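Entry 12.
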Amino acid sequence: MPRRLWLRIGLVAVVAAVSIFYLYPPRKTINLGLDLQGGIHLVLGVDIDKALQIQTDRTAERVRSSLEGKGLAVQKAERRGNTEIQIQLASPQAWSEAQSLLQKEFPSFEVKEQDQSAGRLVLALRPAEINSQRDGFVRQGLETIRNRVDQFGVAEPSIQQQGDNRILVQLPGIQDPDRAKALIGKTALLEFKLVDDRLDPAAIAAALFVAIEEWQARGGRADLRALIHRALGSVLAAYPVPAAATPKRR
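Predicted 3D structure (tokens):
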């Protein structure tokens, strides 16, 4: 009899505990959304045109460096619009060699408006590459914003693409809109400073552009630091480090 009594008591205790759990669940199991606990709602825009202009400016520098590296003088290599590069060779005699080099090293561009007698042509970014870069810029923006939002410690932030070039950010429970806007909306800047004047700045810049383009081609999923380290390694290998002087004994 006592044994059956204890079984009944235990069963009643379990049923009571389960009932209490469902009636009064722990607070941490419920994450209130923006509509229940308030917070911040932001819609950010990715400046696709500006990003394309910056990328095209960098490629124009690479074009000049590549041509001049082969001994082909260039009068002008500059961006036109968002995705085109105007090239003016110093000598029309270099036309064939320049054409071959550009098609080999810059396959994402197509050649148009060719004027062989004047040594002038235009490189235009292919439509498929433009679309790929647009998607990459938005993905990069999403990843950057996610990393910045982590600093707020929000339980369930909502960060998602909206349309072609907008990013929707919802931060439940955050009550400091100025700080959120300042942190999330700030512009990212990657800066390199050359500290060894023995190195060729053009070669360093070309190596960095190659690394960044490869990173973008992979959709921003690769390790950018590893790509830069690998690209710079081939450049630095051409500049032997001088041996340290052996101190003289007195």
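Annotation: The radius of gyration is 29 Å. The chain is about 50% helix and 20% strand.
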